[in-house]
UniProtKB/TrEMBL annotation:
<dbReference type="InterPro" id="IPR036157">
    <property type="entry name" value="dUTPase-like_sf"/>
</dbReference>
<dbReference type="InterPro" id="IPR033704">
    <property type="entry name" value="dUTPase_trimeric"/>
</dbReference>
<dbReference type="GO" id="GO:0006229">
    <property type="term" value="P:dUTP biosynthetic process"/>
</dbReference>
<keyword id="KW-0378">Hydrolase</keyword>
<dbReference type="GO" id="GO:0008829">
    <property type="term" value="F:dCTP deaminase activity"/>
</dbReference>
<protein>
    <submittedName>
        <fullName>Deoxycytidine deaminase</fullName>
    </submittedName>
</protein>
<dbReference type="InterPro" id="IPR011962">
    <property type="entry name" value="dCTP_deaminase"/>
</dbReference>
<dbReference type="Pfam" id="PF22769">
    <property type="entry name" value="DCD"/>
</dbReference>
<keyword id="KW-0546">Nucleotide metabolism</keyword>
């Protein structure tokens, strides 16, 4: 089941579920999730290999980092892949998984955010991929690239009533 905002805030206070949340998220979060912020942005360079016997991760060149002293913006160049690290860290209990979804403003702007899930028991930083799929630059404030944090406990998540009634997508009609 998806946890509500009061339960999420309780877990933040009592279990440090998410560390370094913005004040707004602690006092007035939207819905049943938290917005996360960019702590550092890296341009991915060089080749990569993921094989059975060989692994090589491309190098990361830091191009911007968050500063509480100034409001920084960064420009995502067209068709360039970046990795972003969040300011926030998580301390995930063993009965909770964390799922991420991008803000709709990002995908409406042609920006794709690559996220994963956080497994129960994971403790640490969060990294996401981000790419500008448009042919024009896109400017982003360091504090505004927000993957939404959605938390579910170990129970099966029920489908919303509309998904149960209408299995076909309106986009396929």
């Amino acid at each position: 089941m998806i946890l509500g905002v009061s339960e999420l805030l309780r877990l933040v206070r009592e279990k440090k579920l998410v560390e370094n949340l913005a004040d707004r998220e602690l006092t007035n979060p939207e819905g049943a999730d938290f917005d996360l912020r960019i702590g550092a942005l890296y341009r991915v360079k060089g080749k990569g290999v993921l094989g059975v016997d060989e692994r090589e991760t491309p190098t990361m060149e830091e191009i911007a980092s968050y500063s509480s002293e100034e409001n920084r913006s960064v420009t995502l160049e067209p068709n360039v892949y970046y990795v972003m690290k969040t300011i926030e860290r998580v301390n995930t209990p063993k009965d909770i998984a964390i799922l991420f979804r991008p803000r709709s403003t990002l995908y409406r702007s042609g920006i794709a955010l690559f996220t994963g899930n956080v497994s129960p028991g994971y403790v640490g930083e969060l990294n996401f991929g981000i790419i500008n799929l448009r042919d024009e630059p896109f400017t982003l404030e360091m504090v505004l690239a927000r993957p939404l944090l959605i938390v579910a406990n170990g129970k099966e998540v029920e489908q919303p009533p509309m998904a149960k009634k209408n299995k076909s997508s309106s986009l396929s009609k």
